[in-house]
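PROTEIN–LIGAND DATA SHEET

This sheet pairs a single protein chain with one bound small molecule, zinc ion, given as SMILES. Inputs appear in the order they were entered. The predicted three-dimensional arrangement of chain and ligand is reported afterwards as a token string under its own label.
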Amino acid sequence: MSLKKKMCNFRKSIVGFMALLIVLAGGTGTGYASIEPATRQTLVLQHATIVDVTSGKLTNDQTIIIQDNKISYIGNSKQTAVPDYAQVRDASGQFVIPGLWDMHVHLENNYKNAFPLFLANGVTGVREMGAALKNIDVWKTSIQAGMPAPRLVYAGSTLNGGPADDAPHMLYLKTEEEAREAVRLNVAKGADHIKVYSWLPRPLFLAVMDEAQKYGLPVEVRASEAIQLGFKSIEHLHGLFIATSSIEDDIFKNADMSDLAGYSLAEIEASKSYDPVKANKLFRKFKEKGVWPVPTLVTYLNMAKTEIDPRSKYVPTDVQKQWAEVIRAMSPEQAELLAAINSTTPGMVTKLNDAGVPMLAGTDSSYEMNNFIYGVSLHDELELLVKSGLTPLQALQTATLNPAKYLEREQDLGTVEKGKLADLVLLDKNPLEDIRNTTSISAVVLDGKLMEKQTLDRAVKTYPVIKVSDLKDEPEVPGSSAK
Ligand SMILES: [Zn+2]
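PREDICTION REPORTED AS:
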């Protein structure tokens, strides 16, 4: 493989996480894929300890009655009669939390791998952040045909400017009319929000805003301005170090942010001139206006790994080979850049959390980038959030309560309460004691349907895990190059 191609693969592998900034969610579209099992019954979970993800309170020996897809009753097991026609699941000694959401994923055409992995890992909802429009129809058709899948909200294709790459999940726009048409295409596919990339030129960005009354953020727009424009989430904390720097103006004047590496370097440089007064003003605005940072700490760490993650046994071999190629092609400069990002970003999470800004858990999971494992990476992210200063309860909120608030679906989602949709995870261990206990999954309830962990695991395929050193030199293995 030529050096040029290796560089290209590396660049593609990071473009997905670095460039995009902002998403606005709106009320249009029908992004909630409906999951309708053929038959339903009354499901009863007995003797469960319910984790209140709002307060952190634990209530033990509870009976949860689920009728169709909703929680119809919760009460003490001693005082609750169980209908004799019900399916009863003993949850003694187990902790019940709301189903988890990964708020930043890319499904591409990997849904056959991704859906079972999400469910086996307790992920009952995902926010899809950019895909080829044709793939949306494929997911929808499979779900309608009965394939168990997490709830899905999606952006459609990402809107970008600049020279066209061959990224299948992007629409490269040149004119305002193209920008408007792109919004209409996404809306026609039922998109829940519009996502734009950092290199969408401002006039096209304004056309996008005008067309859909949804907003995006090009590089030229500052984080402070973004709030005024009505952004709803900021991905990867991108732009926040610049926005909280005492020399923001100088950075905008002097730094070359025309590409990814330049932008990242500007961010790292800006982190050295952090201005707490300016930051607090910005963070207060985040809270006032409901702007949700999505740190995706796991993204940068996965990409910095110099070996294939051993848990990649869930990832098809050709994808692992592609990852190994990217790892092998990584230059010392690229490794250094990733290390610098990884050493600065957690500090911003700590500052946001200290300022009381609620966040969303997201991973950027995709097979286009190294070492992402659908579902598994979300638990890594929760752990990283705790390492950055969140309590286990706060971390749990980023994947339950906060997504429900962000999606304006608190009436249906986010807590274990009567009247809400029955998306639940049964854990063997208390997640508030140690956030890593979110992996101690015993069963998942999706839309009222009980799925035991063993059943979920059986739906997940496994593959041998390869090593970077397993890669043979030229000629390269067919299909190993990045798309
Ligand atoms: Zn992404």
